[in-house]
Amino acid sequence: MALPHSVRLVEVGPRDGLQNEAHPISVANKVQLVNELASCGCSYIEAGSFVSPKWVPQMAGSSEVFSAIQRLPGVTYAALTPNLQGFEAALAAGASEVAVFAAASEAFSQRNINCSISASLKRFAPIMAAAQAAGVPVRGYVSCVLGCPYEGAVAAAQVAAVAHELHAMGCREVSLGDTIGTGTAGATRTLFDTVAARVPRNQLAGHFHDTYGQALANVYAALLEGITVFDSSVAGLGGCPYAKGASGNVASEDLLYLLQGLGIETGVNLEALIGVGQHISQQLGRRNGS
Question: Residue 45 belongs to a domain with what CATH number?
Fold first, then answer.
């Protein structure tokens, strides 16, 4: 399959990135990060998460973030919403899109959200109904698609089954996440080829962590499978609190450099994005992961 002419980047740094950073960050700094990312040309930004601060302390203040950001036309400001209460809070805060998440691994689902995969999917039914009534698009995430910290290998057919369920429920796009970063290029191609038999390729996205340095190779493999949407995190922020040792998402700057080298359009300014990555790394007192 030929490489695409353009790719849409989903910037998850303000949510998936920050939620796993140890250093506390103020609402003002979160707002600044979202605004700076939008000014770089990022057209889809996951700006917060409406989960209990008891479980994810860094996501406290997401309502305040959504009310304070300077919204640019054409930019989607999305939020993660694990339940109906979270969805209602996100809707009230003005989120333009919401995301729900399920795991491809039974053990991970139990450890992460204390229920089975099928039970987690049933929990989304009221969110999907409320979102449809409100005219809010929903994005689905599937975690542990290329390996689980508790189960090891995860069958591509199992990932396809979960992705199909999310798509059938009404998710406009399903992002496949290599949560612990154990995936390789060959496994990535097999995965997307298998899942694409049940969910159209143009409604699939790739979400790769760089634990073993394979994220960019996996992005390239997914590009060869016709995937044109990728999640990334500025400065490589974050990891996974439920997967010990898992490093952050692929850095947005590194992904953009790869895509530019392939002549693929994204609409994002790399120089400006590098500056944003440096700035947030300084605020967090961490090494830039890009």
Answer: 3.20.20.70
Contacts of 263 (CB under 8 A, 6+ apart): none
Residue 263, sorted as left (phi over 0), alpha (psi -120 to 50) or beta, turns out to be left
42 located within any domain: yes
Question: d(Cα 144, Cα 243) in Å, to the nearest integer?
Answer: 10
Residue 290 is assigned to a structural domain of this protein: no
115 is catalytic: no
For residues 226 and 232, give the distance between their C-alpha atoms in angstroms, rounded to a whole number.
18
Please state the pTM of the whole predicted model: 0.95
> DSSP class of residue 51?
S
The pLDDT-based confidence of 24 (bands split at 50, 70, 90) is confident
The candidate with the shortest Cα–Cα distance to 33, out of 7, 58, 8, 6, is: 58
Q: How many domains does the chain have?
A: 1
CA 282 to chain centroid, in Å, comes to 23
User: Is residue 164 situated within a structural domain?
Assistant: yes
Buried b (16+ CB within 10 A) or exposed e, 170-179: bbebbbbbbb
List the catalytic residue out of 42, 148, 171, 240: 240
pLDDT at 40 over 60: yes
How remote is the C-alpha of 31 from its chain's centroid?
Answer: 18
| DSSP code at position 57 | G
In a domain, 2, yes or no: no
Domain of 181, in residue numbers:
8-284
